[in-house]
Amino acid sequence: MRFVLRILKAFALLLVLLVITAAGWLFIRPPELLSVGDGYAAKIVCSNVFIAGREAEDVLHDDVQAPGNPLLRLVRVSVDPDNDRVTARFMGLFAPSYALYRGAFGCTSVPDGNFEAAAKAAPFDPPAKMQANDALWPEGEGTGNPADGKIAALLADAGIAGPAMRAIVVVRNGRIVAEAYGPGFSAKTPLIGWSMTKTVNAAVLGRLMLGGKVSFDDDNLLAQWKNDARARIKVSDLLGMESGLAFNEDYGDVADVTRMLYLDTDMVSLPANAPMEAAPGQRFRYSSGTAVLLSRIWMDRVGNAQAAFSYPHDALFAPLGMTSAVFELDARGTFAGSSYLYATAHDWARFGQFLLQDGVWNGQRLLPEGFVGAMRTPTAASNGRYTQGQAWLAPGGSSAEAGLPEDTFWLTGHDGQSVAIVPSANLVVVRLGLTPSRLDYQPQTLLKAILTALPQSGAQQQAGSQRQAQPQP
Known about the structure:
Blueprint: H1 2-28, H2 32-50, H3 56-65, E1 75-80, E2 85-90, E3 94-101, E4 107-109, H4 115-121, H5 149-155, H6 158-161, E5 165-172, E6 175-181, E7 191-192, H7 196-210, H8 235-239, H9 256-262, H10 269-272, H11 288-302, H12 305-320, E8 326-327, E9 341-343, H13 345-356, E10 360-361, E11 364-365, H14 371-375, E12 409-413, E13 417-422, E14 427-433, H15 443-453, H16 456-465
Antiparallel strand pairs: 1-2, 2-3, 3-4, 5-6, 5-14, 7-9, 8-9, 10-11, 12-13, 13-14
């Protein structure tokens, strides 16, 4: 009996030592995967608390833990409203990661904990905040009496709207004809676009093209590319995701994309130093790093740092009346053009309507002729799925296979964000939510149902679109 007790005591002591060793290891040198998870949690909670006005624990549970890696359920967050900070720790103890709110520029991950450097990277003279008004949309936020009963009934169908829908706005002939919101969300809630931000970022670059400060054919884009094959990469290669640069977009582990977003203070560094894996224009590789490079390129071309920080607001958001738009910067002052734009569903719809109108707003051309055409023109290397302008023709499948008009093109983003633009039907459909791809929901389901419900003239326009040729950039 004594022998058994000695064995049990030895085993208990060994177990305690193992726990202490593991805890010490997690504290001193936590695995990068835990740091990525905590960085993600801190950033998402920060943006939703300070921009969208949501409760931290709701965001942690609904946005971070419920759809994500099971390890995220062990993450705990704390919000410091006095210092505009959020801290996330695995099990409330390990791998601390931080996010900082910087007013008009939203939140940023601060993986090195250097809040002073992150604060200084954002300008102290942000663009003046625009105020919404009650005029009829898109001039203001008023919708009059838009209810199209047939379409409204579709939006109320959970099978059509999709799991965890947060906002749907349907714009027909330039006016909102129906909208719906999930519990806890409204027309005033700014929502993340994730990779829909890429298309907006491309439009910001397009505004500079209109002024002649950048062109599709520009090469020698970064100083560190000057003396190697990357000097041949053109702006058009980056816009079409055909740069030839290696980049791992796998979100299931510590990959290039998660390292860039949650472990690097300077998001430009990783994609700018990526090696070539193919000649420019020869291979399609979807890359959030590419979009961040485009941000850095257009910011440098503006020619003045303060003007560059204000440029998205002054050149795009203010003219379109996107009063809610918050385009976030990384910790060193580059716009996170891959992922981080928050806006209400009404403002995402404004951007969709802007593209439907070929980059013209209130009679003023804001994008060069042919630029939206590039957004609608497929690239050969992507097998016709992606376009020459950071947009999609066929997210998850072709428009033709889904029974949609051939001129349909899309903004799409992680977890079920989409804006569908159908010029032939004069239709824009915004759908925002928290719908992971594993649920197999496709936004084509919603769009097809709405197109079917349109008046006969819309159906005729849809049929006519089958005869339209693809636009050219």
